[in-house]
Amino acid sequence: xxxxxxxxxYGGSHRAFCDTFIAHSRHDVTLAAMxxxxxxxxxxxxxxxxxxxxxxxxxxxxxxxxxxxMLSVADLRALLPLAMRTIPIxxxxxxxxxxxxxxxxxxxxxxxxxxxxxxxxxxDAVWFNSAFHLEDFxxxxxxxxxxxxxxxxxxxxxxIREKASVLxxxxxxxxxxxxxxxxxxxxxxxxxxWEFDKNPEPFFAALIRLxxxxxxxxxxxxxxxxxxxxxxxxxxxxxLREHIHHAGYVESRSAYWxxxxxxxxxxxxAIQENFGIAVVEAMLAxxxxxxxxxxxxxxxxxxxxxxxxxxxxxxDLVRALRQVLSGERRLxxxxxxxxxxxxxxxxxxEHGVLAIDDAADGV
Length: 363
What we know:
It is a single chain. The chain has 2 domains: 2-170 and 348-361, Rossmann fold (3-Layer(aba) Sandwich); 187-347, Rossmann fold. The strands form 2 sheets. It has a 6-stranded parallel sheet, sandwiched between helices. Helix content is 43%, strand content 15%. α3 (73-79) links the parallel β3 and β4. It has helices at 12-24, 39-53, 73-79, 110-122, 131-145, 156-162, 200-212, 231-236, 253-261, 277-284, 297-300, 306-309, 314-326, 333-347, 349-361, and strands at 2-10, 28-35, 64-68, 89-93, 125-128, 164-166, 187-190, 218-221, 244-247, 265-267, 288-292, 310-311. α3 (73-79) crosses α4 (110-122), α5 runs antiparallel to α6 (156-162) and α7 (200-212) packs across α13 (314-326). It starts with a strand and ends with a helix. The protein is built from 15 helices and 12 strands.
């Protein structure tokens, strides 16, 4: 097949998805991409750009258009040349603007959520990056439509569910041979974006408390940084100065994987996560997970590891970290290898790209 991959926000997990799919797909994939800036303007205007200005992909005469939630599929279909409007379109949902949390000082603009709904309706296939995300989207879509004062369309969520599938994003599997320094204290990893939805405050509060209790540990803070970051990052550096091994984005992928492989425990405190490529990569590098028992996180782990690797509250996080650092809650080598095998089998690029390729054949 000839697939046109339209990416309005080529950065972060979106970029990882595109690059991995292009590298391993059996299909002929042409990428048309826009830089990862100003997501609201991307949702408003990307369809016009792809249909009118970025037209080189049209010359490939694609059999399928693959785009994502940052693009208005209804606008794209309407703006394409008449002869191109019947090309099947699959829309991949990395996130959605129906349930994505917003800062307390902002008011949700429902138009972005409506765009997600009409994109799903206008697509021939709708793919979600986790089962959690699919169900979360449908619940939120129904709640938004219920806010309409009258003329509420019926059967919308049923129509979306009928053409929806769960396709995990394919994750590159590195060949790592970086032995850990057994003489070093355990290294705790934060691999997430430096943004409010990753909820860094309880993470740093827990580490500062453990540092005050005298626990030895190293801290690695990775993830993309933007113009502004939550104040808790800068406010925590002094209290954790003796523990910080690295803090900052790592541009090189090989250096990034080496950094992951030097860590022992990957922690999340996020209030928004529909999949979590960063934490999946950390588990592939041998890190023990410590995730909140919410969002997509339980879906990432074998059920046998839910008890040692999931926590319920911020208070439970402090206790869980204390138990990991003391060795009481530490996974043994066999469990870590089993976890890695499970992650490779379910989320590795070979299985993930094959599943997407097969789904593309069926659109």
